[in-house]
Amino acid sequence: MNNTDDIAEKIISEIEKTEKRIAEYKELTKPTAPDCAIGRVSRMDAINNNSINLAALRKSEDKLKGLKYMLSKINDDDFGLCERCKQPIPIQRLLFMPQSQFCVYCSR
Q1: Residue 70 near residue 12, CB atoms below 8 Å
Q2: What is the pLDDT along the chain (108 residues), one digit of tens a residue?
């Protein structure tokens, strides 16, 4: 199996995990009904938790978009090259963060 196959497998696996995580975050971010009998402090805590889960949801949706983009480019000649400097992205980075479109230096 070559590096591209390994990366494609990793991307598909990450897409599945991320889609599952998005579904969980969507469930967690459903609004609490105002008639739900919880105290003022508990309601404030629920609002705070909701904003944290919304941020995690947005981050996961961005990651999913990046993963799908990289999967669509997997067979392109320039796959694995940084989109900014055009230098190769190390295979370890692509396996660790398969949605990476930039090398470490350009991602800063």
Answers
A1: no
A2: 468 888 999 999 999 999 999 999 999 888 766 666 566 667 778 778 889 999 999 999 999 999 999 999 999 999 999 999 999 999 999 999 999 999 999 988
Do residues 104 and 93 touch, judged by C-beta distance below 8 A? yes
Two structure tokens written together for 98:
């398969």
Residues 84 and 106 sit within 8 Å (Cβ to Cβ): yes
Residues 7, 96: Cα–Cα separation, whole Å: 9
β-bridge mates for residue 81, sequence order: 88
Instruction: Return the domain boundaries, the chain.
Output: 3-76
Calculate the alpha carbon distances from 19 to 15, 25, 26, 55 in Å. 6, 10, 11, 15
> Whole-prediction pTM value?
0.82
